[in-house]
Amino acid sequence: MISKLFLCGASALLMISTPATAHEAAQPNDAQIAHIAYTAGALDLEAGKQALAKSHNKAVRSFAETMVRDHGAVNQQALALVKKLGVTPEANATSEALTSQAKEKARELGKLSGRAFDRAYIHNEVAFHRTVNGALSTSLIPSAHNPELKALLETGLTLFQEHQKHAEQIEKNLR
Q: Which of 17, 112, 140, 147 has the most CB atoms around it within 10 Å of its CB?
């Protein structure tokens, strides 16, 4: 079952992904979008490191290695872009909620081992990617004003959709 804190973080992402008809001003700006995207990537990278430290399952470890590699690479691109653009990523309620829920999930996962850890980690990865991908496609990308930021987010979305599919396949095999 998804933890309450994950739902809090997911709710924060979903709040920014709702249509902006009445609350156009509530949409995140580019500095906030950069912070949200970077935070989500950094958190998934850390989750991957935890899985590498705890899991002995070949498929789970391979997936975790992919998370560390891919999210690390995208975040390096993001850092280079914000430096180039002279933008300072801006902390916000969404990135703070994501960080809080990820810390709680890491504590939960830290208490598990073996198959229970593998199943919980992969289940969380499916849910996390589903939520982040939804926010990217419905809010973050449409709200981004800078074309280079938008392009990086679109590239990330394509990659992260593949992560979601991969995690869903592993989840089926772990049942």
A: 140
Query: What angle (nearest 5°) sits at the alpha carbon of residue 46, between those of residues 42 and 52?
Result: 145
DSSP output for 49-113: HHHHHH---HHHHHHHHHHHHHHHHHHHHHHHHHHHHT------HHHHHHHHHHHHHHHHHHT--
**Residues ≥6 apart with Cβ < 8 Å to 33:** 140, 143, 144, 149, 153
- Candidates 145, 35, 30; CA nearest to 93 is 35
**pLDDT one-digit tens code per residue, 86-129:** 999 999 999 999 999 999 999 999 999 999 999 999 999 999 99
pTM of the shown model: 0.86
Q: Residue 108, class by beta-carbon neighbours within 10 Å (0-12 exposed, 13-18 middle, 19+ buried)?
A: middle
Looking at the domain assignment, is residue 126 inside a domain?
A: yes
Structural domain of residue 152, as residue ranges?
Answer: 29-174
CA distance 64 to 29: 31
Question: Number of folded domains in the chain?
Answer: 1
> Domain containing 39 — which CATH number?
1.20.1260.10
34 part of a folded domain: yes
Closest among 37, 131, 153, 140 to 123, alpha carbons compared: 131
